[in-house]
Amino acid sequence: MTPAQRIMPFVTRVLRSPLFAAVIFLTFFALAWVLRAGLIQKDTDQIQANLTNEARALANNLEREFSVQAGALGRMAKRMSNNVYPSETVWQADAHTYLNDFGIYQAIEWIDKDFIIRWLEPATENRNVVGFNVAFNEQRRRALEHSAETGESDTSGIIDLQQGPKGIVTYHPVGQGSENNGFIAGVFKMQVLAKQLLTARIIDQFQVEILQRGESSYALNTSSDISAAFRESVPVNLPSLDWQLTLSPTMNWVENQRSQWPSITFVSVIFMGALASLTTLLGQVIFKRTNTLLRTQLELERQVDERVAVQVDLERLESTDTLTGLANRRFFMQDLAHTLNIADRQLRQVALVMIDLDRFQVLNDTLGHQFGDELLIKVSERLNRLSSETILVAYSGGDEFMICQQQMDDIDDVIHLLGEIKQCFAEPFEAMGQVHQITATMGVAVYPPSGQDADTLLRNADIALYRAKDQGRNTYQFYTEGMQEKEMMRLELDKDLSEALANDEFVLYYQPQLNLDTGEINNVEALIRWQHPTRGLLSPVEFIPLAEESGRITEIGRWVVLAACRQLARWKGTPCEHFRIAVNLSGRELEDATLVDH
C-alpha cells in the first residue's frame, strides 16, 4: 500500500468529521479577531492624537486669553502710575468699565505698597476684603516684593479666595522699584474663568484639570462619565506659574471618535467563516443522508412500537395510583360524578365512605416511610377485595382511602359494607418483618340527602370522618344535618384560638388540694379557662383538643407555667406563700425537647 493510499482514509474521516467545519470557523474567527484588534489599535492611536490636539489648542487659548487679561491690568496700572486717578471714585469708574468689558473678573483691586487692599470694585459685594493683607505668607510676600522690584506681573496660583471659593489673583505692579505704588490686582474665580475660557463643547465632552507643581488644584466636569483609557497633559506657559492642563474625555466623546470599521470587519469575516462552515456541514449532511434515512426508518418503527406501549401505560397511570394500584383520586371523582348523574336519572342512592388509618402517621414517622409505603400496599390489597361492579375502591393520598357504593336500596346495604371494611382490618398487618394491628375510622355520606354533587358529597364524608375521630377512632359516623354547622363553629373557634394568647384571653383558676388528715390546704391545681370575647367562659374540653391538633398546646402550656409562677410571686408575704401549684401537661407537650428548660 502506497503512502497516499494509507493517508486517504484518514483524510476522508477528517473531511466527514464535524470538527472540520469547526476548524474552518475558528480559522476565520482568529483572522477576524486579528483584523479587529489592528483596526481598534489604529482607532485608539487616532483618538489619542485628537485628544492631544484638543489639549494643546485649549492650552494655547488659555495662554492667549490670560495674556489679554494681564495686559488689561497692566494698562490700568500704567494709568495709575501716571496719576490718572485723582480719587477712588474715578478709579472705581474705570475698574467698573473693565469689569463690564471683560466679564471674567470677580473683582479689580488696588493694593498699596504695604500689600494692603485699599480700593476695589465692586465694593458692595467685596467690602469685607478691604484692609486684607495679600502677603499672607512668606512665599507670597517674596513673590510680591520681587514683582514690585522688577516691574513684572505676578500670579498667585490657585488659592482659596478671601471672597469665596478657589480662584487666582494676578498682580501688576504700579511703577517699579522705589517708584512702586502698590499693585493693580485682578481676581478670577476658577469656575467663572473656566466657563469664560472654555467652550460648551469642551465643558460637556471633557474633564479639565489644572495641575499646579504636579498636584491637582482644580477640576471641571468631575461628575461626567469619564473614560479611564485616555488622558492628555500639556504644559501651560503662563508667567510665574508652573501649570499643566490635563484633558480627560467623556465616554460619549470617545465613542463618537471610534470608527465602525472594526465591528463591520469582524462581523463580515465571522459571517464568511460561518457561511464556509455551514457549507462544509451541508456537504457532510448530504453525504450521510442515505445511511441516516435507512437507520431512521428502522428507528421510527421501533419508536412507534414503544409509543404504543407507552400510551397504554399512560392510560393506565392516568386512572391508577402508582403505589397502591388502586384508582387515584382524580379518576375516582370523575367516576363519582358520572355515577351521581346516573343515580339522579334512576332515582337511586349512592354511598361514599372515607377511610382514615388510625395511628398511621405515628408508625410512618417512627418506623420510616418505606414501612409506611409497604403498609399502604398491604391495606390496599385487602380493600381491593371488596371491589365489584357496584363498588369502586380508590386511594385518596396520605393515609386515606375512598369507597363508592354505586347502588344501594337502603341504609342496611351501607352498614353491611362498613362491616366488610372493618373485617379487612381484623387481622394484623405485616410490613418489613413487623406485625402491627391497624384500625380504621370511617365517615359516610349518602347521595342525595348528604350532597347533590361529587364535591359536596366528598366534603360531607370528610366532615363525618372528622366527627368519628372525635368519638375515639376505630368507628364510623354518618353525615347528618348540623354536622357542617358544628364543623364551621369548630373552625371559627380554632381561628379565635390563634389570637387568644396575643389578646390575653386565658385565665387560671386554682382548685385547692385538701389534706384529709390535717384539714390543711398546702397545694392547688391550676385549671385553665378561656374567657372568649363572644362565647363567654369556655372549659378546657372545648378548646384543648383543638390546641393539641393545631400544635398550639405547647405555647398554651408555657403560658400556664408562666402565669402560675407569677401567681406564686404575688402570694409572697401572704398566708398562701407556702402553696405549691400543680400544672397539667398535655401528651403533646411531653414530646417537646425544651419542656424541662421552660
Structure description:
- With 598 residues, this protein is an alpha+beta fold.
- It has 16 helices and 21 strands.
- The chain has helices at residues 3-16, 18-81, 88-102, 138-150, 190-197, 200-205, 251-257, 261-319, 329-346, 360-367, 369-384, 411-424, 454-470, 483-500, 540-550, 553-570; strands at residues 107-111, 117-121, 154-155, 159-160, 166-173, 183-189, 206-212, 215-220, 232-238, 241-249, 349-357, 391-397, 400-408, 429-431, 434-436, 440-447, 476-478, 506-514, 521-532, 536-538, 580-583.
- Strands 1, 2, 3, 4, 5 and 6 form a six-stranded antiparallel β-sheet that branches. A five-stranded mixed β-sheet has the order 12-13-11-16-17, with helices on both faces.
- A hairpin with a 2-residue loop joins strand 14 and strand 15.
- The radius of gyration is 51 Å and the shape is elongated.
- The mean pLDDT is 80.
What overall form do the CA principal axes indicate? elongated
Mean pLDDT: 80
What would you report as the Rg, rounded to the nearest angstrom? 51 Å
Give the N-terminus to C-terminus distance in angstroms. Answer: 93 Å
Show unreliable segments.
none
Helix/strand/pairing class, anyone?
A: alpha+beta
Overall helicity: 40-55%
Q: Report on the biggest sheet.
A: 6 strands, antiparallel
Our estimate of the beta-strand percent is 15-25%
Count of individual helical segments: 16
Number of strands: 21
